[in-house]
Amino acid sequence: MNPEDRILDAKAIGQKINRLAWQIFENNIKQEKIVIVGVSGRGEILASALSEAIKSISSLDIVIGKVCLDKENPYKSNITTDLAQSDYTDKVVILVDDVLNSGKTLMYAAKYFLTTPLAQLSTVVLINRTHNRFPIKADYVGLSLATTLNEYISVVLEGKMQGVYLS
Q: Global pTM?
Protein backbone atom coordinates (compact mmCIF):
# COMPACT_ATOMS: atom_id res chain seq x y z
CA MET A 1 0.00 0.00 0.00
CA ASN A 2 1.26 3.40 -0.92
CA PRO A 3 0.77 5.91 1.94
CA GLU A 4 -0.03 8.56 -0.68
CA ASP A 5 -3.13 6.56 -1.68
CA ARG A 6 -4.49 6.55 1.88
CA ILE A 7 -7.81 8.38 2.17
CA LEU A 8 -8.48 7.45 5.81
CA ASP A 9 -5.83 6.83 8.44
CA ALA A 10 -6.23 4.91 11.72
CA LYS A 11 -7.46 8.01 13.58
CA ALA A 12 -10.08 8.79 10.91
CA ILE A 13 -11.28 5.16 10.93
CA GLY A 14 -11.64 5.37 14.71
CA GLN A 15 -13.67 8.55 14.35
CA LYS A 16 -15.93 6.89 11.76
CA ILE A 17 -16.45 3.88 14.03
CA ASN A 18 -17.34 6.14 16.98
CA ARG A 19 -19.84 8.10 14.88
CA LEU A 20 -21.40 4.88 13.61
CA ALA A 21 -21.62 3.58 17.19
CA TRP A 22 -23.51 6.71 18.27
CA GLN A 23 -25.89 6.43 15.33
CA ILE A 24 -26.60 2.77 16.05
CA PHE A 25 -27.11 3.50 19.75
CA GLU A 26 -29.45 6.42 19.05
CA ASN A 27 -31.56 4.33 16.67
CA ASN A 28 -31.73 1.43 19.11
CA ILE A 29 -31.89 3.26 22.42
CA LYS A 30 -35.06 1.41 23.50
CA GLN A 31 -33.55 -2.00 22.84
CA GLU A 32 -32.06 -4.08 25.63
CA LYS A 33 -30.01 -6.27 23.31
CA ILE A 34 -28.71 -6.02 19.75
CA VAL A 35 -26.84 -8.53 17.62
CA ILE A 36 -23.86 -7.32 15.60
CA VAL A 37 -22.74 -9.72 12.90
CA GLY A 38 -19.58 -9.13 10.88
CA VAL A 39 -18.96 -10.62 7.47
CA SER A 40 -15.93 -12.89 7.93
CA GLY A 41 -12.62 -11.11 7.54
CA ARG A 42 -12.56 -7.33 7.73
CA GLY A 43 -16.30 -7.12 8.44
CA GLU A 44 -15.70 -9.23 11.52
CA ILE A 45 -12.89 -6.94 12.71
CA LEU A 46 -15.03 -3.88 12.09
CA ALA A 47 -17.98 -5.47 13.93
CA SER A 48 -15.77 -6.10 16.95
CA ALA A 49 -14.52 -2.49 17.00
CA LEU A 50 -18.07 -1.21 16.57
CA SER A 51 -19.28 -3.42 19.41
CA GLU A 52 -16.58 -2.07 21.73
CA ALA A 53 -17.44 1.52 20.78
CA ILE A 54 -21.14 0.94 21.49
CA LYS A 55 -20.34 -0.71 24.84
CA SER A 56 -18.27 2.34 25.81
CA ILE A 57 -21.21 4.73 25.32
CA SER A 58 -24.22 2.63 26.31
CA SER A 59 -25.53 -0.17 28.47
CA LEU A 60 -26.85 -2.15 25.50
CA ASP A 61 -26.27 -5.88 25.76
CA ILE A 62 -24.43 -6.82 22.57
CA VAL A 63 -24.17 -10.27 21.06
CA ILE A 64 -21.41 -10.40 18.47
CA GLY A 65 -21.02 -12.98 15.76
CA LYS A 66 -19.78 -13.59 12.25
CA VAL A 67 -21.29 -14.81 9.03
CA CYS A 68 -19.07 -16.80 6.67
CA LEU A 69 -19.59 -16.97 2.92
CA ASP A 70 -17.61 -17.18 -0.29
CA LYS A 71 -17.54 -13.51 -1.30
CA GLU A 72 -16.83 -14.29 -4.95
CA ASN A 73 -19.49 -17.01 -5.35
CA PRO A 74 -21.88 -16.80 -2.39
CA TYR A 75 -24.57 -18.72 -4.28
CA LYS A 76 -22.30 -21.77 -4.72
CA SER A 77 -21.44 -22.33 -1.07
CA ASN A 78 -23.13 -22.70 2.27
CA ILE A 79 -23.50 -19.55 4.31
CA THR A 80 -22.89 -20.13 8.00
CA THR A 81 -22.76 -18.19 11.23
CA ASP A 82 -21.23 -18.88 14.62
CA LEU A 83 -24.48 -17.79 16.31
CA ALA A 84 -27.32 -20.06 17.37
CA GLN A 85 -30.62 -19.16 15.72
CA SER A 86 -32.03 -18.30 19.16
CA ASP A 87 -29.31 -15.62 19.52
CA TYR A 88 -30.90 -13.48 16.80
CA THR A 89 -34.56 -14.57 16.59
CA ASP A 90 -36.81 -11.53 17.18
CA LYS A 91 -33.75 -9.34 17.80
CA VAL A 92 -32.26 -6.30 16.10
CA VAL A 93 -29.50 -7.62 13.82
CA ILE A 94 -26.84 -5.30 12.46
CA LEU A 95 -24.81 -6.74 9.60
CA VAL A 96 -21.32 -5.23 9.19
CA ASP A 97 -18.83 -5.25 6.30
CA ASP A 98 -15.90 -3.07 5.32
CA VAL A 99 -16.83 -1.98 1.78
CA LEU A 100 -20.14 -1.94 -0.09
CA ASN A 101 -19.12 -2.34 -3.71
CA SER A 102 -21.70 -4.20 -5.80
CA GLY A 103 -23.85 -5.24 -2.84
CA LYS A 104 -23.46 -8.97 -3.55
CA THR A 105 -21.76 -9.90 -0.27
CA LEU A 106 -24.20 -7.95 1.90
CA MET A 107 -27.19 -9.24 -0.06
CA TYR A 108 -26.29 -12.89 0.42
CA ALA A 109 -25.27 -12.35 4.04
CA ALA A 110 -28.60 -10.61 4.72
CA LYS A 111 -30.47 -13.41 2.93
CA TYR A 112 -29.17 -15.86 5.53
CA PHE A 113 -30.99 -14.00 8.31
CA LEU A 114 -34.24 -13.51 6.40
CA THR A 115 -35.41 -17.05 7.11
CA THR A 116 -35.81 -16.16 10.79
CA PRO A 117 -38.17 -13.59 12.33
CA LEU A 118 -36.16 -10.48 13.24
CA ALA A 119 -37.14 -7.27 15.02
CA GLN A 120 -35.03 -5.36 12.48
CA LEU A 121 -32.14 -5.92 10.08
CA SER A 122 -29.71 -3.07 9.38
CA THR A 123 -26.44 -2.87 7.50
CA VAL A 124 -23.23 -1.01 8.28
CA VAL A 125 -20.27 -0.38 6.01
CA LEU A 126 -17.13 1.63 6.55
CA ILE A 127 -16.97 2.61 2.85
CA ASN A 128 -19.87 2.84 0.40
CA ARG A 129 -18.70 2.98 -3.24
CA THR A 130 -22.21 3.53 -4.63
CA HIS A 131 -21.79 0.97 -7.45
CA ASN A 132 -24.63 -1.29 -6.32
CA ARG A 133 -25.74 -4.02 -8.72
CA PHE A 134 -27.86 -5.69 -6.06
CA PRO A 135 -30.87 -4.08 -4.35
CA ILE A 136 -29.33 -3.50 -0.95
CA LYS A 137 -28.19 -0.32 0.75
CA ALA A 138 -26.17 0.50 3.80
CA ASP A 139 -28.19 1.97 6.65
CA TYR A 140 -25.06 3.26 8.37
CA VAL A 141 -22.08 4.50 6.32
CA GLY A 142 -18.68 5.67 7.51
CA LEU A 143 -17.73 7.32 4.20
CA SER A 144 -19.37 7.42 0.76
CA LEU A 145 -16.99 7.57 -2.17
CA ALA A 146 -17.86 8.20 -5.79
CA THR A 147 -15.23 6.10 -7.54
CA THR A 148 -14.79 4.78 -11.04
CA LEU A 149 -15.19 1.07 -11.68
CA ASN A 150 -11.45 0.89 -12.41
CA GLU A 151 -10.48 2.16 -8.96
CA TYR A 152 -9.99 -0.23 -6.08
CA ILE A 153 -10.60 0.31 -2.36
CA SER A 154 -8.33 -1.53 0.09
CA VAL A 155 -9.15 -1.55 3.78
CA VAL A 156 -6.48 -2.41 6.35
CA LEU A 157 -7.86 -2.58 9.89
CA GLU A 158 -4.79 -3.84 11.74
CA GLY A 159 -1.12 -3.02 11.95
CA LYS A 160 0.93 0.06 11.21
CA MET A 161 -0.55 0.49 7.70
CA GLN A 162 -4.10 0.74 9.06
CA GLY A 163 -6.18 2.82 6.71
CA VAL A 164 -8.42 2.97 3.67
CA TYR A 165 -6.59 3.18 0.36
CA LEU A 166 -7.81 4.16 -3.10
CA SER A 167 -5.79 2.90 -6.04
A: 0.90
Using CA atoms, how far apart are residues 53 and 155, in angstroms rounded to an integer?
19
Give the phi and the psi of residue 121 in degrees, each rounded to 5.
-125, 125
pLDDT in tens, 57-72: 999 999 999 999 987 7
* Residues in the chain, overall count: 167
Dist CA 48 CA 108 (whole Å): 21
Nearest to 22 by CA among 56, 48, 54: 54
On whether the 3-166 domain is CATH 3.50.50.60, my answer is no
**Every domain of the chain and the residues it spans:** 3-166
Q: Where are the alpha helices (DSSP H) in the chain?
A: 10-27, 42-57, 85-88, 104-113
The whole-angstrom separation of Cα 3 and Cα 1 is 6
Nearest Cα residue to 88 out of 72, 58, 73, 109: 109
Of the two residues 148 and 114, the one the predictor is more confident about is 114
**What crossing angle do the helices spanning 10-27 and 42-57 adopt, rounded to 10°?**
60
